[in-house]
Amino acid sequence: MQIDCGIIGLPNVGKSTVFSVLTNAPVKISNFPFCTIHPNISVVRIPDPRVYQLAGIVASRETVHGKIKFVDIAGLIKGAAQGIGLGSKILNHIQTTKVLCHVVRCFDDNQTVHVFNNIDPCRDADIVNTELILFDISQCEKSICSLQKKHKLINENIEQQLFVLKKCLDYLYDGVLLRKVHFSNIERTNIEKFNFLTNKPIIYFANIDEKSVTNNTYLNKLHAFAFNNSIPLISCCAMLSSSKNRDDRFKTAMKQQKDILCDIVSVIFSVLNLRTFFTINSHMTRAWIYVVGMTALEAAKKVHSDFKKGFIRVQIIKFDDFIFYRGELGAKKAGKICYAGKDYCVKDGDILKFLFQI
C-alpha cells in the first residue's frame, strides 16, 4: 500500500523546502510567490527499523518497505478557487491523496516575502481552508449536475449519492469542513468516492526558524488553533543555518530528514489508522501497510490473490517474540506461534505466513 500525501499552504511558507527535506529531492526554491508551478512529486521509503531486524535474523536477500508519495503543489492564495493566481487547477493534483500536510509559516524573516507582508498563522490556515471549501463546492456542484443527468435511469445507488452530495453541499455552503461532519458509515463510503479535499485528514506543519525554536508566539497561536480544531501539529525548522560548515550542514540535513520523515509518518499512520504486518523468508522481508480492522483473509489477498482463494489458516508470530527467540524455530520451541482462521484481526507487528491450497 502506497500512502499519498499532499503538501499545501500559502506561497513562500516553505512547502518546497519541507518537500526537499522529506524526500531529499532537488527542487527549485526561490524567494517569490509561485516558484512552484508544476507539482513536485517524489516517492520515499517509510522508515521502519523492524524490517532490518527481521531481515538480519532470516538473512533475507531483499527488503521491501512501505512507501509514501509526497505531492508538493503551488502556493494557494485568497481567491485561488475562483482562478486567482494559478487558479484551482493546482488542487486537482492532490485530489487522490489520502492526507494533506499544511505547511504554515511561523517565523519572521525580512528577506523572505510573505504574501500579506505580516505573519499570522491562524489567518493563513483559515485562508487555505476557505479555498479548499470553495474548491469542494465547485466539485460537488459538478458531481450533482452529472448525476442528475443519469438519474433518469432510476438507479437507487445514484439516488443515495445525490442525497449525500446535497447534504455535503449544504455543509460546504455554511463553511463547514466535511471531515468535521458526523456522517453515517454508508454516507461516508459514498462521499469517499468523490475525493473531496475538506474530507481528508490534515496535519499542520509549523515551519519555524532556528532563532525561534523556543518562545515562538506564532507557534503558540497555531498550537491553540490546531488543538481547538482537533488537528495534529508538527513543528520543525526546515531551513538550515548558512553559518554551519559544509560537513556539519550535511550531517544535520541527514538527521533532519530522518527526524521529520519519522514524525510525519507517525502522524499520518495515526490519522489514517494504519499499521504494519510482515512477511519473511530467505528471499525477502517485506512490510505491508494496512488499515486497522483488516482480517487474515484480506491480508492474504493483499499478499497474493492465490492465498485468499485457497486460504486454510494463518500462522502468526508476534514481532517481539520473533526477535527475542531469534526466529521462527526459536519461537516454535517457546510455544510462541499461534494459528488462526480467516476472521483473525491482524495486529501491528504480526509476522504472517499463510497456509493455503489451490
TrEMBL record:
Gene3D superfamilies: 3.10.20.30, P-loop containing nucleotide triphosphate hydrolases, TGS-like domain. GO terms for cellular component: cytoplasm. The keyword ATP-binding applies. InterPro entries: ATPase_YchF/OLA1, Beta-grasp_dom_sf, G_OBG, GTP-bd, P-loop_NTPase, TGS-like, TGS-like_dom_sf, YchF_C. One of its GO terms (molecular function) is ATP hydrolysis activity. It comes from the Bacteria. Its cofactor is Mg(2+). Keywords: ATP-binding, Hydrolase, Magnesium, Metal-binding, Nucleotide-binding. This is Putative GTP-binding protein with nucleoside triP hydrolase domain.
